[in-house]
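Please check this record.
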Amino acid sequence: MTGINPLDGLRRDMPDVSGQLARIWSILPDARLVGGAVRDLLCGRGVSDIDLATPLAPDVVMARLKQAGMRVVPTGLSHGTVTAVLEGRPFEITTLRRDEETDGRHATVAWTRDWREDAARRDFTINAMSCDSAGVVHDYFNGRADLAVGRIRFVGDARLRITEDALRILRFFRFQARYGGDAPEPEAIAAIAALSGMIDRLSVERVWSELRRILVGPHVARTLVQMHDAGVLGHVLPEGYDISRLGRLLACGAPADAVLRLAALVSGDVREVARRLKLSRADTTALAQTRGEPVPLPGMGADVLAPMLADHALRDLSWRTWLRQADMAGQRAATWDALRAGLEAMEKPVFPLAGRDVMATGRASGAMVGRVLARVRRWWLENGCTAGHAACVARMDGVLRDGPPAET
């Protein structure tokens, strides 16, 4: 890794981005690639975001880019960030900074021309490297060596880095899972264990954002055990958790979905978890439905599965089978796979009767229409959703002959 020029991989794998970057460098020759782009280029991983830093002030950066005919967006001027847009691709360019004041969540910054001073405010050594237009990597804190051996280390004093921003506790575990070795760095773990209570001061949106990434990242179970051992996971999920259940779900080969994995991990009230973490409405519904009933089981026939599919989304039913499979460890995976394949092959049953059918009889109106439909639909479900329109009409006539259904 020592002799690697990060830009060689960029030219090879992303020639269009390399060309766009060259154009920016022609305008801002002192700018450097920073952060995740340098880290991932060094270890041969795909790069999504290309971020740069510069010793120039934001207004100077904007003026130069605009003068060159480039579209520029002032995305975060208070933090020194502008975004250059080339052929629809954004490049964030941030003025070198130093922290003037921090409170564990936010920082007041000032501009600097000192690259090392800017690197010193970053979280981990592997994220503190920068790369200039010649492909030279500037590495003030031995991040390149740490990356090579899988060591996630805070820049400088670990406790100070955490007190500046407590979210770094969760970021540590996310990066440890993706770039670290089997055992986390002892100094980092000691600092995290001592300051784990600071997580309670973070916004829940930030906590869920990091937890979501951890749940869909590599080495999930191992990472969660490390978080538990450091006293972190209890602050993230005070409602309770069961890492072993999630481990069994992973062993089943379930889809790598954060909400599904959260449903397996949480041992407490999932609705309370969703409320506290302020999950989106879609994620809240998915979490609750995944832990709901009924659950399809191997050996069930179409007459049992069809009513389930009529009343529930296929994804909800499928995810429930993954959780139940994890709970019933030892049962042959092939039987569960066959069950899910059968569900996916089934066409979702659609109740063939509508309110207009009831209204057309002239014998029901208003709220009674809904009650008649509910009575017939219950019969349709109980009979495996096989009755067609004519059979349901006949059943409706019988319901009407028996008298108006009572309210339920």
Summary: The first helix runs from residue 6 to 13.
